[in-house]
Amino acid sequence: MKEVFVEMKKLTVSVLLLAFLVLALCGAASADPKDYKGKIGISLPTATHGYMGRVNWWVKKAIEDWKKKSPELEFLVVTADSVSKQAADIEDLMIKEIDALVCFPFDSSLTSVIEKVYDKGIYTVVLDRGTTKPVYDIYISNDDEGYTREGTKWIAEQLGGKGKLVIIEGIPCEINTIRVNTIKETAAKYGLEVLDSQPGMWNAEKALAVMENYLQKYPQIDAVYTADDDMMKGALQAYKESGRKDVKIFLGGAADKEILKMIMEGSNPLVRANVTYPPDCIATAIGLAVLGHNNQVLEGFYQKKLPVRIILAAELITKENAEQYYMEDELNFGK
Questions:
Q1: How do residues 112-142 score in pLDDT, each as one tens digit?
Q2: Rounded CA gap, 206 and 168, in Å?
Q3: pTM for this prediction
């Protein structure tokens, strides 16, 4: 397998440019986009929190942009609020004879149904939470290890290599395990003490409850790392209501525009940085499905095939560069 590490400098890069990801690296597609055809199935979780709301927004934007360039393309989008519903949705997409599948799985337990799609010869692009085995033509993801390593290293630098850290985790799954393990390993390397790590399920209210428990349990906390902006908002609220003054840093992640604005304006001294985890990764996945199904050979790409694994780089955001990542038009979930 070949891995391509793609550095994403701005969230404001156009979706079409993202869709032609490899084009940006090494050449041009061999056919005019107006000639692209096919029925593209897109399966993803329902937007129940901020990040997934942004993912759903990027799906709509990507489809709008592709339809302008490739009117013969057809897109079928299904969202699910459970693993069983998503599995049923994917089975239904196969019945509807899709030519390609883009799947953002609830978790890797969907591997068996995704394998059915792949074995049937349907071009398959999987992203983010992944599968337990390579049952896809392309896997594309943000860099969970780099994402949390960058964040933990920054926290350590801000605390001078000494401090007590609590972690609020996401939903138990492979990428959450990677994130938590990386935070713990990096914290140990740079002198931070990890007091506790509990799941907040990528949900603001649950993160608030976890933070309330931490505040009752630990008399001294120097930093809170949620690796997710939704959970950080909940943790911040709990801390504000507690009246405590000991925490010096809250770090989330994924560049929620409300948090970026906070960093740009310097309005909350506890929130001074973020790390990229672009939700428009799914727009790139849709573009790769279109290209792959249409058997595009990219000029200058000598392997004559799209990469099997693509990992988008994680970048530290501070006040100095936050404006580069701020996107006014992107969905602000719940508002």
A1: 999 999 999 999 999 988 899 999 999 999 9
A2: 10
A3: 0.82
